[in-house]
């Protein structure tokens, strides 16, 4: 992630924690946070584990 975006993310986060962030800043924070979390991840890979659909087991 671009260093300037990290600085902006930090600034917006501090404003949000202090309850001083405006609605547009909160939206920008959400977008930057998602970009930060997804940075370096392979979008093509799906890490979801699919379990086979077999008979259900009960605890009884």
Order of helices and strands: HH
In percent, how much strand structure appears in the residues? under 5%
Structural class call reads mainly alpha
Unreliable segments of 5+ consecutive residues: none
Gross morphology: elongated
Count of helix runs: 2
Oligomer: single chain
Instruction: Measure the end-to-end span.
Output: 51 Å
Question: Mean of the pLDDT scores?
Answer: 86
* Helical proportion, percent range: 40-55%
Give a short account of the largest sheet.
Answer: none
Radius of gyration: 19 Å
Features:
about 60 residues; mainly alpha; 2 helices; elongated
Describe it.
This protein is mostly helical and 60 residues long. Helices cover 52% and strands 0% of the residues. The protein has a domain at 3-38. Helix 1 packs across helix 2 (23-38).
What is the structure about, briefly put?
The protein has helices at 3-17, 23-38. With 60 residues, it is an all-alpha fold.
Secondary-structure blueprint of this entry?
Elements: H1 3-17, H2 23-38
Helix pairs in contact: 1-2
């Amino acid at each position: 992630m671009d260093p300037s975006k990290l600085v902006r993310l930090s600034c917006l986060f501090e404003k949000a924690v202090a309850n001083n962030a405006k609605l547009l800043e909160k939206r920008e924070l959400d977008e930057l946070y998602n970009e930060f979390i997804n940075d370096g991840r392979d979008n093509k890979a799906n890490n979801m584990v699919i379990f086979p659909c077999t008979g259900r087991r009960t605890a009884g």
